[in-house]
Amino acid sequence: MSFSLAIVGRPNVGKSTLFNRLVGRRLALVDDQPGVTRDLREGEAKLGDLRFTVIDTAGLEEATDESLQGRMRKLTERAVDMADICLFMIDARAGVLPADEVFADILRKRAKHVILAANKAEGQAGESGLLEAFSLGLGEPLRLSAEHGEGMPDLYAVLQPLAEEF
Ligand code: GDP
Ligand code: MG
Q1: Which ligand 1 atom lies nearest to the CA of residue 146?
Q2: What residues pack around ion ligand 2 (CB closer than 5 A)?
Q3: Which residue of 48, 103, 121, 132 has the fewest CB atoms within a 10 Å radius of its CB?
Q4: What is the pLDDT along the chain (166 residues), one digit of tens a residue?
Q5: Which residue segments constitute the domains of the chain, with CATH numbers given?
Q6: Is the CB of 33 under 6 A from ligand 1?
Q7: CB distance 61 to 34 below 8 Å
Q8: pTM over 0.95
């Protein structure tokens, strides 16, 4: 049995970095510069003995006439509707920003299962952001460092019981 996991959150929090780590091949582009990744990208993820489909959301980096907020909402809603589980990522170093609250709202209303993850939390840098994340009302945040591969066993521990439902 398998499930799908959508990684959602505002640009630059580290979604594609986690996607690439789970997929093990560089299917999604990661870049410091805006405008590199587009829309939705799917890959086959492997985490311990779990195999699932992972969906990376992008496309928010691009400047178009439509507002970022509007595109963010549409794209996130598409990903949320496609996926069994959503991993909502914030940047633990930046803390909770107004855009994160917009995502949290969409997810609270629409997602079947939400996993809250505070990324870039290697070392002590993410401590205050991790605490702020509780205020999103989506439960206890998972402490991740997608770039350094920290927090993967905790992600496994959260996904494993959910995987059994699908
Ligand atoms: P996305 O826009 O959400 O897909 O974010 P990306 O995966 O493209 O990452 C944006 C930037 O954050 C890149 O420069 C990454 O190298 C960096 N990044 C991603 N994960 C981490 C992390 O765990 N720690 C730190 N310090 N930087 C990270
Ligand atoms: Mg990306």
Answers
A1: 23
A2: 15-16, 37, 58
A3: 48
A4: 689 999 999 889 999 999 999 998 645 555 554 444 457 888 899 999 999 999 998 765 555 666 767 777 788 888 889 899 999 999 999 999 998 998 899 999 989 999 999 999 998 889 999 999 999 999 999 999 999 999 999 999 999 999 888 8
A5: 4-163 (3.40.50.300)
A6: no
A7: yes
A8: no
